Structure formats: structure tokens, C-alpha cells
Amino acid sequence: MDLLIGGGLAAFTIYAAAKWQKSDQDKIQHTFKNIGYLVKDKTPKLFKTTRSDTYMLYTYHVPFGLVDDPKLQVLEKVLNKPVKISFVNTKLHIKVFNQQLPKLIDYDWKPTERWNIPIGKSYNGSILHDFDKIPHMTIAGMTRQGKTVLLKLIFAHLILNNPDDVEFYIIDLKGGLEFGEYENMKQVKFVASDVDEAEQCLSSVMDKVKEDMRYFKAKGYRNIVDTKIKRRRFVIVDEGAQLTPSKHHTKEQRKKFDYCQYTLGEISRISGALGTRLIFGNQYPTVDNLPREVKQNSDAKISFRLPTEIASRVAIDEHGAEKLNNAGRAIYRTHEKHIMQVPYIDDKDISERLGVYNVSSASPETTSRREDTVEFG
Ligand SMILES: Nc1ncnc2c1ncn2[C@@H]1O[C@H](COP(=O)(O)OP(=O)(O)OP(=O)(O)O)[C@@H](O)[C@H]1O
Ligand SMILES: [Mg+2]
């Protein structure tokens, strides 16, 4: 008998705990009050809830005078779930996702449309970056957070989608350790591994950009996306901070650094419409090592974890990157902002899949540092 009563009590306790445990909706309503998100005692009123496979969307009418407020970010901790807050057509939207993003997503080698690159998975699904819509990109993040992996993912996927139309000029300032092994691929025109080579590489890109400009003028073209020209040229910089002149450099060296920084700025300023795209990776962006023009002209900004909120603001114009907590997790910022997990790709996989484009065993003119003429049309 005792046993029966004891068992009944335990079951009741579990039932009561489940019943009295507050729902997300209750917790949100309590949070409004506790953090003072109200006007004269009036808190937002739930207007509707919308359920999908991956999230629950709570839409609120808010009293006049309230808009979305950064302090609502506490909801992420209160609910212990990913939350996205926005203000749409005078209503507050609180989207509560069912699941955290996975810590590892393998890159799947599925081709996509031309210049659209699947750079990450967000709570809402795949994120595709379209280099024809937004030509230039900056990528920031502390060491070992995933910048080079993302650069290689973009590189590999561009080749997968457009093997005959894409070409690369790569400045790999880790002495060529990261991209050196790809320098014999037919799509790779130049891999620069130090500042002397970077100067040569950028000067040759600049010559080509000027050539394109003359051609566009002669033809009356304004933007490559409105022409039949298929070719796109990508300039990738891995570790741009290495191009910063310092007092330890000689005058001669400083001139080279200055030239590289200036030219990157010029490329970002004039070449987007002509079909050249710049991707500038950098550990810790500062006003000294992220050329102002490059930042201004890069409408896509990605950041992995950064040490401070200030660094986050330099990289993506807002806080948040200081809170990212695992390799491959990044914020993708265009006119919108998404938190994403970048798919993981490794060198072995790239070499196996793209090895067919290796021309190292071909005739001498196809070996490294090729300076082929760009073909139009
Ligand atoms: N998208 C990812 N998913 C899971 N793990 C990742 C991802 N990207 C990177 N990593 C892990 O982090 C390590 C370092 O990545 P990566 O070389 O890209 O860092 P980095 O930001 O370029 O660092 P550094 O500034 O030192 O060059 C990888 O070897 C891998 O273990
Ligand atoms: Mg790196």
C-alpha cells in the first residue's frame, strides 16, 4: 500500500513539474516585464504564433514607443534556444529555433548556380552567397577559427560550378603553405607567398582590370552581369594583416606594402562591375591592416570568433563575433545578418576532387605563374 502511495506521489510530482513548467510563451512574457520592455505597464500582446519544422514564431503587437531592443537578446539565455528578433511591419517577431546549429557540417560537393556559393547553414537553412550580386567580401576571425577553410570552400566550389570560367590570383601570406599545392591548377593564375610576389600578383591583376576597363568602355558595357562575358576573376588574400607596413620594415619594403594595400583598395573600388571579385581574409581587423576602401566596398562581411566586441564592430559593424564559440561558426553580414556554421572541407578532398584540373605535368607554359590572356565572351 505504502508503495502504491509513494509511486502515485512520484508520478504526480513529475506531472506537476511538467504542467507547471513555464512554456516559452510564458517565459517571453515574464522577460518583457523583468527587463522593462514595456510602456506605462503595457507589455507587448501576443498577436499570433506560427509553427514550422525548425522554429516557432511569436508575433507581438507592441505599445507605441517600443521597437526591437538589443536587451531582448537575453531571451536566448532565458529559453536556452537560438532566438532571432526582428521588427517587421510595426510588429515584434521572436523566432525561437528548436535546435542549436551542429558543430560540424561536412561540405557535400553539390554544384549550385554559377557564382552562388553555399558558405554556411543557418537556423533557416543554407546560406548562398552570390558573387555576382555582392562581388567583394571580407573574412575576419581569430586564429584557428576557420578563415582558411572557408576560403578553400569558396575556391573549391567556384571551380566545381565554373571550371572553365573562373580564375584565381591568390595571395597566401603564410608562405604559400595553404594554397601553394593548388598553384598548378588550370584555374589558378598566381599564388603569391610573400610581399614581393604579392606586389607582382596585384600589379598583374591591376593591368588586367585596366585592360577590362578599356574593353568595357569600347563596347559601352557597364556591368559584367549584363553582358555575355562568362569569365570571373577572384583575388583571394589569406592573412591580409601581413601586408601592413611597420617601423621594422625598410623604406623599400614599406613601399611594397603600401603599394599592395593601395592596389587592393583600388581593386575593390573599381573592379566589381568589370568581373573581378576580392575576398580579403584577416585575423584581427584594425584600421591599419584592413584598407578603408576594401572595407567600404565589401558589402558582404563574415566574421568568426573575435577577441572583443570592438574587433567585432570593426569587422562586421556590430557586436556578436566575440560571442561565437566553436570553429566554423560565423556571422554573415550583408543587409541582413545570419549566424551560420561553415561546412568543413579538407585539402585531401579538394586534391582528390579537383586533381583533374592539375596541369603540372603539361608543357612549360602551363606551369605556375601563368599569365594567360583573359578571354571574353
Ligand atoms: N567549418 C569548420 N567546421 C569545423 N571545424 C573547422 C571549420 N573550419 C575550421 N575548423 C577547424 O579549425 C581548424 C583551423 O581552421 P583554419 O585553418 O581555417 O583557421 P584560420 O582561421 O585560417 O586560422 P589562422 O588564422 O591561424 O590561419 C581546422 O583545422 C579545423 O580543425
Ligand atoms: Mg588561416
Automatic annotation (TrEMBL):
ATP binds at G141, M142, T143, R144, Q145, G146, K147, T148. Residues 124-313 form the FtsK domain. It comes from the Bacteria. InterPro entries: FtsK/SpoIIIE/SftA, FtsK_dom, P-loop_NTPase. Transmembrane segments: none annotated. One of its GO terms (molecular function) is DNA binding. It holds the Pfam family FtsK_SpoIIIE. Keywords: ATP-binding, Nucleotide-binding. This is DNA translocase FtsK. It comes from Oceanobacillus picturae.
